[in-house]
Amino acid sequence: MPVNADFQGRTYPPTEPYRVGAAKIREFAEAVGSDDPVHTDVQVARARGYADVIAPPTFAVLIAQQCDAQLIRDPEAGIDFSRVVHGEQRFAHHRPLTAGDVVIGTLHVDTVREAGGHAMVTTRTELATEAGEPVCTATSTIVIRGGE
Amino acid sequence: MSEPTAATTVPRAVDVAVGDQLPGRTIHVDRERLVQYAGASLDRNRIHWDERFATSVGLPDVIAHGMFTMGSAVTVVSDWAGDAGRVVEYGARFTNMVVVPYEGGADIEVSGVVKAVDPETKRVTVELTATAAGQKALGRALAVVRLD
Predict the structure, then answer these.
(1) How much is the mean pLDDT over chain B?
(2) What are the residues whose beta carbons fall under 8 Å from the beta carbon of B54, sequence distance 6 or more?
(3) What is the pTM of this model?
(4) Would you tell me how many other CB atoms lie within 10 Å of the CB of residue B1?
(5) Is the model's pLDDT at A112 over the cut of 80?
(6) Residue A22: which of A52, A58, A60 has the closest Cα?
(7) Which residues does chain A have within 8 Å of residue B68's beta carbon, measured at their own beta carbons?
(8) Which residues of B touch A139 (CB under 8 A)?
(9) Are residues A48 and A134 in contact, defined by beta-carbon separation less than 8 angstroms?
(10) Host domain of residue B81
(11) Considering the domain boundaries, does residue A110 fall inside one?
(12) Contact A56 B71 (CB under 8 A)
């Protein structure tokens, strides 16, 4: 089934608040092999001027992909998750995600296009605190591989 | 080129020049690591840990999460900059899959080179190269760090 091009330009409602936890930051940092103590030691983090331990630069993908799931699981979008491959990812950090942050993601479907028998969908998740302070812009392009 | 620095010494923008090489590293990835990353990132797509499923959807074998490669590669930049929170922008394309065989896993060779230095904002752009099995896993992998 082809991807529904009508989804280009769509914005989903803001997600439920996501609470950034120190334990999840530690788990993620260990998984990517980042041993900077700023992820695990609150004293180190505070000495560098942060309120608490901060997340590695790609941690935001965890929240952004939960936002993307709204699109991927939308039956009308026509996306076969088993054929999805990640094509490109970008982050612009307005400040580091910090333990204790409560953030809300707003998903925008920027482009839907076909190329070489595959569909490519670019989404942008704007992460902000509940008070509206921008934290991170995460942009993702997924490729939905065409069938044989 | 900057002089070799001790691990506790972080570069200042004024000391950095285009063409400077960052200390590289080899990142080993195996099935255990992919399961760890799947749990940490909540990206539990079976193509990253289930060989039977991966081959059934046309992949050669289990493949690493692109975000695992991207997230582990940026440690070259964050460790060099002395603080993961200094990474203010980061983006990459996933150009070739990192195939992770059951036996032996895979090695990802990561290196970084300074591509731009902005003396006004003290922002330094680093291009990362991540290679596995002789193929580039990341394309246009650029990280921007804010130095002192």
Answers:
(1) 94
(2) B46, B47, B48, B60, B61, B62, B63
(3) 0.94
(4) 8
(5) yes
(6) A52
(7) 31-32
(8) 91
(9) no
(10) 15-28+65-146
(11) yes
(12) yes
